[in-house]
Design a protein that fits this description.
Strand content: 25-35%
Largest sheet: 5 strands, mixed
CATH class: Alpha Beta
Shape: globular
Helix content: 25-40%
Order of helices and strands: EEEHEEEEEHEH
CATH architecture: 3-Layer(aba) Sandwich
Radius of gyration: 16 Å
CATH topology: Endonuclease, Chain A
C-alpha cells in the first residue's frame, strides 16, 4: 500500500484525497490521487530547507511501493497559470511567476529531481507523470541488472 503523509487542518474548501491529504484544488486532488493509485510514496506540502530558505513544494515523491528513488522528486503544480483566469488573478501573476522562477532555480540546484506541472498537463497527466516517475523507477532495473552482471 502506498505511503503518504500530510498536514491536516484548514478551511472547509480543502479537498480530501484518496491518500487522506487535504489539497487546495480539484487539480491538486487529481495529481495526488494519481500518485496514490499507482503506489508512489509521497508527501504533500512537506517542509524543506534549501539554500537557507524554508519551502513547501506541492509534493515530494520518494519512491514506488516502498522502494526509494536515488534522488526524490519534487513536484510543483503551477495552478494559477490556468486559462480562463478569475478577475482577481491578473494582479497576482507577476509575483507568482517571480516566485515560480525562484523556486525552480533552487530546486534545480538541489539534491532533488524536479518536475513542474502546468494546468494544461492535466489533460495528459498519465503521460506527463509516467514519463518522469517511471524513468526514475527504471533506474532501479538498470542498476539491478548491472549489479548482478558485474
Amino acid at each position: 500500500m502506498p505511503k503518504s503523509r500530510h498536514r491536516g487542518g484548514g478551511p472547509a474548501s480543502l479537498i480530501r484525497t484518496k491518500a487522506g491529504n487535504l489539497v487546495k484544488s480539484r487539480s491538486e486532488a487529481q495529481i495526488d490521487n494519481w500518485l496514490y493509485k499507482r503506489g508512489f510514496d509521497f508527501e504533500y506540502e512537506p517542509k524543506l530547507w534549501l539554500e537557507g530558505e524554508g519551502l513547501s513544494p506541492d509534493w515530494i515523491v520518494s519512491g514506488l511501493k516502498g522502494r526509494k528513488f536515488d534522488r526524490p522528486l519534487i513536484i510543483e503544480y503551477w495552478g494559477l497559470l490556468r486559462p480562463g483566469k478569475a478577475a482577481w488573478l491578473p494582479k497576482r501573476i507577476p509575483k507568482y511567476l517571480e516566485r515560480k522562477a525562484h523556486k525552480e532555480s533552487i530546486y534545480e540546484r538541489s539534491d532533488y529531481n524536479f518536475m513542474g506541472i502546468m494546468p494544461q498537463d492535466l489533460f495528459s497527466l498519465t503521460e506527463t507523470l509516467e514519463d518522469c516517475l517511471f524513468r526514475l523507477a527504471y533506474k532501479w532495473q538498470t542498476n539491478d541488472l548491472t549489479e548482478h552482471h558485474t
